[in-house]
C-alpha cells in the first residue's frame, strides 16, 4: 500500500522533509508557491548559506518552550547534517563562532544539490501552487487558490513564517494551521534591526564601530553581544543588534521599558577609561573638547555625544570639571537609547512565535490535533539565534517529519 505524502512549501524544511519521506519509501509531492524552490535559502548567510553551527546548544533556541526542539536537534544533529550534505557534494568550511558554510561560499551550491536530489529521486514538484486550505476526507485534500485539489495520505506543512515575504513567506501557513484547529502564539520579527528614540539618529546615520550592545529591561541588563554595530536613520543595526532583537521585541510587546546600551569603548572598565581620559587630556589642555576626542572615537560620534551630555563642543579641555569627564566616560562605556520597535517583516531574517508547540509531538512533528498532519521549521513557535541555528532547525524538523510520516 503506497503512502502519498504532500509537502506544502519547498524551502529548507520542506525540501528536507520531502527527501526524508522519499528515502523511507513514500511517494512525495512538493507544492511550492514560487516559480522555484529554495528562494529564501539563497539569501541566507549573506548569500553564502551558513547551513549549521558546530557550537549548537539548546540555549540558542527560543519560543514559549524552546526544549521542544531538543529531540529533533539531537536525532538529526549537526554531525548528521554535515554528513548528509557532504554526501550530496557540499564540502564544509567552518568559520569563527562555529558557523558552517559550503566551501564554495555560495548559497546556490546548497540549493543546487538539493534540487538535483529532488529530481534524481523522482519527487514530484509543482511550482506556482498556492495552497489555501487542507480538508480531511479519505486522507487529505490539499486545495489550491485556483481550486485545484491534490489527494494525499499525509501532509507536511512547511510554509515558513512571515519573515522576508518577497521569498514567499507571507504567513499563509498560519491561516492553514488555524483552520485545522491549531493556535498561533504572538508572532513578531526576529533577527531584525531595531528602531530607537533619539534626536541624533540623522547625524549618526551610517556610523559603524566595533563594540558591545546590551538590552536593558526595566533598567536591568538581560543580554549583551559584541561585534560590528551600525547606527541608521531609524535606529541601529549590525549582527549584535540582530541577535538581541528577539528579546528586546518580546519584552516590548509585553509592555516593558526596553533600552539598548552601546559600549563604544569596551576594552577598558569605567575606572580605567576615566583615568585614561584624565591622562589624555593633560597633554592637550588648550584644545576644544571636540578636537580633543579626535582619534579616540569615530569623528561623527563626537558632536552627538557632547550634545547628549550637555558639554559645549568649544569648551576648552582645561576647563572641564571631573564631573564632566565622568559623564563622558559613562556615555562612552554605556550610551542608552529607548527601543521603540523594529524594522518590518521585509528586513527580518526569521519569525518569532508560531504554531503552539504543545499541539505538536516533538518526536515526530505530527500534529496532536489532526493525525497525519506534520508541522515543521519556522512555522512552529521555535526560532534560533543568528549563525546557522535556524537552518539547522529546518533540516532537523524536516527530516524527523519526513521520516515519521513515511514510517507511520
Automatic annotation (TrEMBL):
All residue ranges annotated as the RsdA/BaiN/AoA(So)-like insert domain in the record: 189-349
Required cofactor(s): FAD
This protein's UniProt keywords: FAD, Flavoprotein
Xref: InterPro entries: BaiN-like (IPR004792), BaiN-like_dom_sf (IPR023166), FAD/NAD-bd_sf (IPR036188), RsdA/BaiN/AoA(So)-like_dom (IPR055178), RsdA/BaiN/AoA(So)_Rossmann (IPR057661)
Keyword Flavoprotein: yes
Annotated RsdA/BaiN/AoA(So)-like Rossmann fold-like domain residues: 4-403
Protein name (record): NAD(P)/FAD-dependent oxidoreductase
Lineage: Bacteria, Bacillati, Bacillota, Tissierellia, Tissierellales
Amino acid at each position: 500500500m503506497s503512502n502519498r505524502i504532500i509537502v506544502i512549501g519547498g524551502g529548507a524544511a520542506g525540501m528536507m522533509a520531502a527527501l526524508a519521506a522519499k528515502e523511507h519509501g513514500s511517494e512525495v509531492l512538493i507544492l511550492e508557491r514560487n516559480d522555484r524552490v529554495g528562494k529564501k535559502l539563497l539569501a541566507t548567510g549573506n548569500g553564502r548559506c551558513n547551513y549549521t553551527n558546530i557550537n549548537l546548544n539548546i540555549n540558542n533556541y527560543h519560543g514559549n518552550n524552546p526544549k521542544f526542539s531538543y529531540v529533533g536537534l539531537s536525532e538529526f544533529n549537526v554531525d548528521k547534517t554535515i554528513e548528509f550534505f557532504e554526501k550530496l557534494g557540499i564540502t564544509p568550511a567552518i568559520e569563527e563562532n562555529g558557523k558552517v558554510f559550503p566551501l564554495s561560499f555560495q548559497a546556490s551550491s546548497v540549493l543546487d544539490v538539493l534540487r538535483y536530489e529532488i529530481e534524481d529521486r523522482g519527487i514530484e514538484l509543482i511550482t506556482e501552487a498556492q495552497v489555501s486550505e487542507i480538508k480531511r476526507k479519505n486522507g487529505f485534500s490539499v486545495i489550491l487558490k485556483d481550486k485545484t485539489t491534490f489527494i494525499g495520505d499525509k501532509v507536511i506543512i512547511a510554509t515558513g513564517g512571515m519573515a522576508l515575504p518577497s521569498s514567499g513567506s507571507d504567513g499563509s501557513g498560519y491561516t492553514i494551521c488555524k483552520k485545522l484547529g491549531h493556535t498561533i502564539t504572538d508572532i513578531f520579527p526576529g533577527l531584525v534591526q531595531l528602531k530607537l528614540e533619539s534626536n541624533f539618529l540623522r547625524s549618526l546615520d551610517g556610523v559603524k564601530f566595533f563594540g558591545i550592545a546590551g538590552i536593558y529591561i526595566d533598567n536591568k541588563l538581560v543580554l549583551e553581544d559584541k561585534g560590528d554595530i551600525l547606527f541608521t536613520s531609524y535606529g541601529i543595526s549590525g549582527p549584535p543588534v540582530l541577535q538581541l532583537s528577539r528579546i528586546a521585541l518580546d519584552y516590548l510587546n509585553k509592555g516593558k521599558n526596553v533600552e539598548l546600551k552601546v559600549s563604544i569603548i569596551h576594552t577598558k572598565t569605567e575606572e580605567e577609561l576615566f583615568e585614561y581620559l584624565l591622562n589624555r587630556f593633560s597633554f592637550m589642555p588648550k584644545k576644544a573638547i571636540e578636537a580633543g576626542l579626535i582619534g579616540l572615537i569615530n569623528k561623527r560620534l563626537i558632536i552627538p555625544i557632547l550634545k547628549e551630555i550637555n558639554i559645549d563642543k568649544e569648551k576648552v579641555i582645561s576647563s572641564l570639571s571631573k564631573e564632566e569627564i565622568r559623564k563622558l566616560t559613562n556615555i562612552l562605556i554605556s550610551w542608552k537609547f529607548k527601543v521603540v520597535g523594529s524594522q518590518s517583516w521585509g528586513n527580518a531574517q526569521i519569525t518569532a512565535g508560531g504554531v503552539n508547540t504543545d499541539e505538536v509531538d516533538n518526536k515526530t512533528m505530527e500534529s496532536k490535533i489532526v493525525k497525519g498532519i506534520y508541522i515543521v521549521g519556522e512555522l512552529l513557535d521555535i526560532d534560533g539565534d543568528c549563525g546557522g541555528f535556524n537552518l539547522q532547525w529546518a533540516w532537523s524538523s524536516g527530516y524527523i517529519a519526513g521520516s515519521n510520516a513515511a514510517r507511520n
